[in-house]
Amino acid sequence: MNGFPNPSATLRRLLSPRLDTCLACGRPALLGASLPLLCRRCAALVPWITEPRCLVCGRAQGCPDCLRPDAARRAFTLNRSAALYDKTMREWIAAYKYGGQELFAEPFSLMLEQAYRRMRSELSARSEADSAHADRTVIEKRLLSRFRHAFRSDAWSADCVTWVPVSAERLEERGFNQAERMARRLAKHMRLPAHELLARTRHTGKQSFKTRAQRLHNLNGAFCPAPNLDPRIFKEWDLIGRTKQPGGSFPIRILLIDDIYTTGTTAAVCASALQRLEERSGRPVSVYSLTLARS
Ligand SMILES: [Zn+2]
Ligand SMILES: [Zn+2]
C-alpha cells in the first residue's frame, strides 16, 4: 500500500450508488429516501397517524378513555403521536431501548418532527378546528373547552421541549434516556430550547402489564421538577411570554416527549409536576404531549 487511494475503487464508488445496511431489516439498500438509516421498504411500514380521531389523546380510533369523567382533570392539554404502536413499531422501539440499536434515535426523531409539524398546523388553524367540533357530543365539547387556548387563531408553537425522565437504575441499565435523546434531536432540528425539567423521585418498575388504576397508583408522585433548575430558564420563559403577549399572562407551552402513549397516565403525572413550575416562573404552564407511538 502506498497510501494513495486505488483509482479504480474510487471510480467504482463514484459510479455506483452507495448501498448501506438498513437499520431495521439489515438488508443492503439505498437508505434515507424517506427516513434516515431505513430502506424504502421499511420506511413504508410506518403506521403514521395523520388524522387523529380523538382530539385529546390523538388516537386514530374512537376513544372511550378521554370521555371518562377523570380525563377532564388530566393536567396535559393533549397528546399527539407519530404512529400507531403496531408490531413494527413495537419491534423497532424494543431494538432501540433494549437491543443496543441506539441509531434508531435518528429515524424516530424525524418521525417526531413530522408529528410536531402536523400538530403545529393543527393547533394553529383554530377556525378549522372549531368547525370540525360542530358534530361533537356535549362531553367532547366540555373537554375541548378546557384547552380552548390551544386553538388560538395565532400560530401555535412549543416554547420549550422536555422529556419523561428515567430512573437512575434504568439509566444505569440502558446507558441513555431514549426519550431525552429523541427530544434533544427534535429540539435541535426545530430550533426550540430543550431543558431537563423533570426528575424521578423513585424507580417505578415496568408499566406494561398494569391496569390504569395500578399505573396511576404506581406513578403518583413519581416525578418532580428537576432540582437546581437554572433560573435562566424562567427568564427565557418570561421573555417568550412578554414577546408573544405583551402585558398578558401567556402560558408557556411545554412539549413533553416520550416514546409510547398508552393510557396517558405518565403524561398526566409529568404534566402535574411541570405545572408546579408555575409558581417559580410566574407564568401559567400548558403541557402538550408528543409521543412516537400510540397504543
Ligand atoms: Zn429495511
Ligand atoms: Zn382519547
TrEMBL record:
Superkingdom assignment: Bacteria
- Transmembrane residue ranges: none
Give the matching InterPro entries. ComF/GntX_DNA_util-trans, PRTase-like, PRTase_dom
Q: Which family does it belong to?
A: Belongs to the ComF/GntX family.
The protein's name? ComF family protein
Organism annotation = Saccharibacillus brassicae
